[in-house]
Amino acid sequence: MALTLFSSPFVRVWRFYRDGFREMTVGRTLWAIIIIKLIVMFGILKLFFFPDLLSRDFDSDEQRAAHVRSELTRR
CB neighbours of 29 closer than 8 A, spacing ≥ 6? Predict the structure, then answer.
């Protein structure tokens, strides 16, 4: 009894979330959907909509750095 009263707030928060995730039924499916959606958004869409323009347009790191520096200071 005394041990739970004086335990760290971080331990109590961890136990709260741990027990909550263990008791979930519908929530597990929702978390799976969320994780799949994040993988699609950040993994697959990045390949098609966010190409690496700096590596395509410039040959060396110095040229890339100079271009970024000029773009940041120009505005």
Answer: none
- The residues, ordered by sequence, that sit 6+ positions from 58 with a Cβ below 8 Å of its Cβ are 64, 67
Please report which helix (H) or strand (E) contains residue 27, including its range: helix 26-39
Q: Which amino acid is at 14?
A: W
Q: Which domain holds residue 45?
A: 2-74
pLDDT digits (tens, 9 = 90+) for 12-66: 898 988 888 888 888 888 889 999 999 988 888 888 888 888 889 999 999 999 9
Residue 70: per-residue pLDDT: 94
The answer to whether the CB of 67 falls within 8 A of the CB of 54 is yes
Domains held by the chain: number: 1
